[in-house]
Amino acid sequence: MKWEVVKGDITTLEVDAIVNAANKSLLGGGGVDGAIHRAAGPELKEACQKLNGAETGEAKLTEGFNLPADYVIHTVGPVYNDGTRGEAELLKACYENSIKLAREHHIKSIAFPSISTGAYRYPIEEAAEIAVDTVVQLTKDSDEIEKVVFSVFDDQTEKIYKKKLSEIES
To answer: Residues in domain Macro (predicted)?
Structure first.
């Protein structure tokens, strides 16, 4: 099993599936969601229209269309309020349900963005801890998923994810 942190554009990664931090409509938006929709092309929006949206914590799968990835797993992260409204459980569910879908579709490599830490204001330290703990726990004894990439956008997020990953691996 290989876990890694990569700083850059998730839409360019050569993995079987990338995870989209989507909104409930699944029809595109800002941040990573908009970037994935732009890179995948208009067919992605058409495919998402057939999914009838998703609830927070849910995950749904489409083809990757014009992306290097074969699939996009769309998951709806929680909007962070004050941490007392089930945000942690909902964020954990995003990772759990994405991994579950990956297994069901025999996906060997998957890339996650830092879900909910942009417009949804989830504190990056807490979000990274939930992401890394959940994904490592679900994949450490798995031979189904061979590679997980945490795709991050900036230096600070990269540093936080690498630190969390090194704490778990040591």
So the answer is: 1-169
